[in-house]
Amino acid sequence: MGKFILQRLLQTAGLLLGISLIAFGLMSLTPGDPAEIQLRSDGVQPSPEAVAAARVEMGLDKPLYAQYGHWLWRALHGDLGLSFGSGRPVTEELLSRLPATLLLTASAIALLLLAALPIGVVSALHPGGWIDRIGRTAALLSVSMPGYWLGLLLLYYGAVKLKWFPVTGLDGISSVPLPALTLAFGLAGAYIRLIRAGMLDVLRQSYVRSARARGLRETVVVGSHALRNALLPTATLLGIHFGQLLGGAVVVETIFAWPGLGKYAVDAIFSKDFIVIQGYVLFMAVSVVTVNLLTDIGYRLLDPRIRLGRPA
Prior knowledge:
Layout: H1 2-29, H2 34-40, H3 48-58, H4 64-76, H5 90-125, H6 130-144, H7 147-161, H8 177-203, H9 206-213, H10 218-230, H11 232-246, H12 250-255, H13 261-270, H14 274-302
Helix pairs in contact: 1-4, 1-14, 2-3, 5-6, 5-8, 5-11, 6-8, 7-8, 8-10, 9-10, 11-14, 13-14
Family: Belongs to the binding-protein-dependent transport system permease family. OppBC subfamily.
Protein name: Nickel import system permease protein NikB
Subcellular location: Cell membrane
């Protein structure tokens, strides 16, 4: 396990280095002078002398490799620069919005598992039954219904017509259900199908038949012998989706005006705040690769027979 973690950390370092190059390239490849854009954010037309002074202050008069080295060194120390719009450190802005995104992500995953897990298991135990038919229909709707359309429907009926929930923003726990349900429903189809397929495969294995032949209760056979192995692919998908959701469900956060990372990134794109975009890309890259590493380690804990990092 220790060797595997070390290997993955080295791979992660190389991956993050490549991503940092891409993130830094956003500034040099985008049109416009960042120094002039920053000065114009104050609502005045800067003079050429002011732009030149700002370029020197921001280090834009140096070669690109020197700019990248300076930016990367500061990023390694948690300094992602200052936002053009607010003038605040980007790291503080990201961290201040992270709890809202974590709340939305955790709520969506909880709703997802509460629905997909029992439907997938029961569908596998009774293939062709009415729960199986409901599950397959729900999975089809989930993968075919656009998330923005469902979000607008929930917003209109749940908040505007029935007035059960706040319209937008984060105003207490009552603001969570609508955006969380929008995210969860969009992912539920894949999980229902995956859990059902995994359970059907495991239930055909000889050790499950042996457990039943020994007279064990069906709940013990399903819960202790079948479900744990059937959930291994689900754990992988869950880790991938968790990392993606941490990046901010951009559409959902925009529809519900959710004060999370996704909406923050969208606002930065519209305002051409390149410093924020750079910091967001790097911050999300670190989050995603960290979650993926923890998912791989969790694989080893779920099934000790798996030997990570070794050839089969």
